[in-house]
Amino acid sequence: MDTHEHVAGAGGTSRIILGPNQYGKAEVRLVKVTRDTARHHLEDLSITSQLHGDFAAAHTEGNNAHVVATDTQKNTIYAFARDGVGSPEAFLLRLAEHFTSSFDWVTGGRWAAEQYFWNRINGHDHAFSKDKSEVRTAVLLVDGGRQHLVAGISGLTVLKTTGSEFHGFPRDRYTTLAETTDRILATDVTAKWRYAGTGVPDFNAVYASVRAELLDAFANTHSLALQQSMFQMGRAVLEAHPEIAEVRLSLPNNHHFPVDLEPFGLDNPGEVFFAADRPYGLIEAAVLREDSAAADPVWNTIAGFC
Amino acid sequence: MDTHEHVAGAGGTSRIILGPNQYGKAEVRLVKVTRDTARHHLEDLSITSQLHGDFAAAHTEGNNAHVVATDTQKNTIYAFARDGVGSPEAFLLRLAEHFTSSFDWVTGGRWAAEQYFWNRINGHDHAFSKDKSEVRTAVLLVDGGRQHLVAGISGLTVLKTTGSEFHGFPRDRYTTLAETTDRILATDVTAKWRYAGTGVPDFNAVYASVRAELLDAFANTHSLALQQSMFQMGRAVLEAHPEIAEVRLSLPNNHHFPVDLEPFGLDNPGEVFFAADRPYGLIEAAVLREDSAAADPVWNTIAGFC
Amino acid sequence: MDTHEHVAGAGGTSRIILGPNQYGKAEVRLVKVTRDTARHHLEDLSITSQLHGDFAAAHTEGNNAHVVATDTQKNTIYAFARDGVGSPEAFLLRLAEHFTSSFDWVTGGRWAAEQYFWNRINGHDHAFSKDKSEVRTAVLLVDGGRQHLVAGISGLTVLKTTGSEFHGFPRDRYTTLAETTDRILATDVTAKWRYAGTGVPDFNAVYASVRAELLDAFANTHSLALQQSMFQMGRAVLEAHPEIAEVRLSLPNNHHFPVDLEPFGLDNPGEVFFAADRPYGLIEAAVLREDSAAADPVWNTIAGFC
Amino acid sequence: MDTHEHVAGAGGTSRIILGPNQYGKAEVRLVKVTRDTARHHLEDLSITSQLHGDFAAAHTEGNNAHVVATDTQKNTIYAFARDGVGSPEAFLLRLAEHFTSSFDWVTGGRWAAEQYFWNRINGHDHAFSKDKSEVRTAVLLVDGGRQHLVAGISGLTVLKTTGSEFHGFPRDRYTTLAETTDRILATDVTAKWRYAGTGVPDFNAVYASVRAELLDAFANTHSLALQQSMFQMGRAVLEAHPEIAEVRLSLPNNHHFPVDLEPFGLDNPGEVFFAADRPYGLIEAAVLREDSAAADPVWNTIAGFC
């Protein structure tokens, strides 16, 4: 099979070839009820499965002999859910094992999940209300025989009404911003943490702990810059979790501008704010262990953050 | 001032006139921090102000002598917030009183608010995380000297894993749905309740109570139809709150279809579901007191629901 | 059947009753291909069907004997589409006729459609690209034996870079806005027009014409207020279309603020603008024929605009 | 300055360090009117500026001496726009040159733009309607003294009513999908193309041409797999544009399922379809010149697609 095409002309004689590729089924909405007792348990996820491997003939010839149908990938997700989900990470590991072991030409893939949370209504056995305050995420990339497992949280919106300053920044001809020693600091936390390995006994417990660490560090850091809060958040996670090698954070600075009430004969001592939509600051960084910095080139070379 | 235009031709000689109209500023994002002690309080709202009255000249001649600028309406909202918000309903009543008493030609208006909720992070004095599970709403319509006050909740997503049946419905040539005695029942609650009057001592307490009544009724009604759950939800609110004259509910039926696992040699005793996006059922009704049914023709004649 | 419940206590002895209600299936995504020749035709809609009638027993007792399943309503939509759609209005009229004539207890209903547009790719016979610049809408309300038919357009975003002024507005203690004789005027047009009757020969032709009238009136009105542009837009539609009794418009004022470049030593003669998200102005009005003002109380009493 | 922190305990004694980071202002909404003649021109963009360099002290100490404020970045964007935008790519190159040359510690950055399109209303000099059918994108990454420039298109939704087959795929125990020789093929095109260098005379002309090539290839490829259409789309771009080194495509397979009308006594010869929301197929690949495959490791190692 030849995936290459000779091209003459302006572009020279270099061949046009197929580069990296992946395909599958996205956002498979799975709700799993565990009802072995009268006290039901509920798991709610959106799962994406994409395969890597030798799919060149589909691209260049429309030959589907290797194309495990995306519908088949969807069916597999539902069938595997019959045995339970457990955690997004564990479920993705099961899917990856299945696809890479079942088809010779599937050498890896990318599996991802979002999980949504529900609370019992007054402790009810089978009635729940959805907790929309955050989404739990997980991505498993299998490449060259290695598993790269990243868990995350997204959309966790937090705000401090004080304990945030911003001053000492350089001023050039385009600088008009005033310095401040007291401002609102607000952000939507998107965090992703890379596990050093996949042998984590309880992914759900780690998730709950990381979430708590992020919230605590945000709340309790007296902030001279959102960058400082961010670094403390990442460090807190790493200090509490030796199984995590790296944390990446993407934090918008959701600006809250104090409204000038002077034209109306009123003061405004940090009480009345306009919450702006756009533009917003966007602060992103990786926090990692020094000895893991070079350990996972696939993830370290990802230029995008979250 | 003549708002009418004579039109000849196909449409006859009837004049084209200005009908009902309103204008103002929408979605004014207001964050109010109350910081008289070290324990800060946070109120987060989106407020819309629209005026009714004699604005015909602006429409027909571009004469703005009566047009209280939408920017002025925005400024007024922020200036009034300096004294605190208290509750969406109380704040809208203040705004309405101001605009209708300050400008002779303003005879009424429509004021609306959304309120967003925040929880303290571990009881922190000034750090909060946003609770996105619902939005609180309020609308105040002032028309003909009367105040029509409606409060509401939207986006409260709930689900029961059992305790829901659906059977006994008529079958015609287009009916293929199977009957069921056990299904997932899930919806996003949008409710609006009309107050009999505006003299409610504590709107926030009523909100919390109505929310609890809605959740309890949903959870504890063994449901033979989403209509039945809905009516019980509305009735529970009215029974608990004599100050409320009517409740309107708009409930999508968020379908969760059991996945057929038989092709894979598996059973599926109500455990694995596909959560569908569209289409969805849409069930809407008003529940009200018999003696208030004719009491508020403005609201009773609203054809739309929520 | 008794839809009433006696309630004692705080609310007095008034009974709690079921008020107006409707139910059905929402957002049925229908794509119809007409392929009787090699030149295919494509219709793409989202259709909602809701029934009115005697459904009290479902609410009060969970008795579904009258509940035409929402799944059946969906099936009916797809089955009827086999004969073609034609226009949203014509299709909704067919659905309404079917449901009100097939079930004794169905006295009316609300049927609604959105239509999405596609253009041929270079005139291709069967390849299309989606035109997302607007959505066509239609609502048919059948109530008390009368048909109320409203067509519309939504999301049509327009902008003028000049030819818009705003001055002469009243100034109070909360007014800070400067007057201007040259500003950007931008809005997203949502318009709904009520047909005097349903006997319109070609709804598609009317839609195209109304769209053109709205665009022309917006473009060619030198605007002293968005209200003035709006009224001219409505009037243009009524003058061109005797079969239309009323137009309702809901127009956000999408603010474009000139950026102050003076701190950077630059002028800004109406060239560089910040396009704000929120808040925005919101200008709404009905424009109608004088002799039709009282002709349709159901629609005239709708307080909401679009 | 020490960005490292010694950590003892479970995680070992490895230090926790700051990894890759970037920060700036996101989604600066810029509208530029060029009005040197009565025929105005309109450019509408959302621009993001993020800096790379030595910002460690902000993270570890809250020292902002190097932190060019995000507000300053926003001001710079507006000030530069006074001289015109031209094209997203050219504008990003100007911004990058400014920031990397003005501050010693700024070694690179990521600049991104979205551009929105407007059409003249009937050729009007200063009235426009927005064309929402697609968004133009551009990203400029400056890293290690090299410029990596990627342009793109997103949200371009296309559909073929025939000329698409899917069969010959492998069947395992989870496969239930039927083969088909005639189906609807629909997708939302997200494409990104990497320029071999930044010396492109007319980025706008290339954009228009690439868009046309993508549409033509989609329309005119008889498709045995969406992968095949995708590869032809990428190849067409590369064949027409020697200045482009690589194209990455991310194409959802927007499923349109034929509705089974047999229960209603009707056939359905490819005429009536349900357009599903989720799940959807997701097909992604890079198409590139063989001699450029290893030329840009920064971009080639990006695991994510679009």
List keywords for this structure.
6 helices, Urate Oxidase, homotetramer, 306 residues, disordered N terminus, globular
Quick rundown:
The structure is a homotetramer of 306-residue chains. The first copy, chain A, is an alpha+beta fold and 306 residues long.
Q: Would you give an account of this structure?
A:
The structure is a homotetramer of 306-residue chains. By secondary structure, chain A is of the alpha+beta class. The first copy, chain A, has two domains: 20-141, Urate Oxidase, CATH 3.10.270.10; 145-306, Urate Oxidase, CATH 3.10.270. Helix content of chain A is 23%, strand content 38%. Chain A is built from six helices and ten strands. Chain A has helices at residues 56-61, 70-81, 88-102, 203-220, 226-240, 297-300; strands at residues 16-34, 41-53, 106-120, 127-143, 146-160, 185-195, 244-253, 256-258, 272-275, 280-289. In chain A, a hairpin with a 6-residue loop joins strand 3 (106-120) and strand 4 (127-143). Chains in contact: A-B, A-C, A-D, B-C, B-D, C-D. Strand 1 (16-34) of chain C pairs antiparallel with strand 9 (272-275) of chain D, so a sheet runs across the interface.
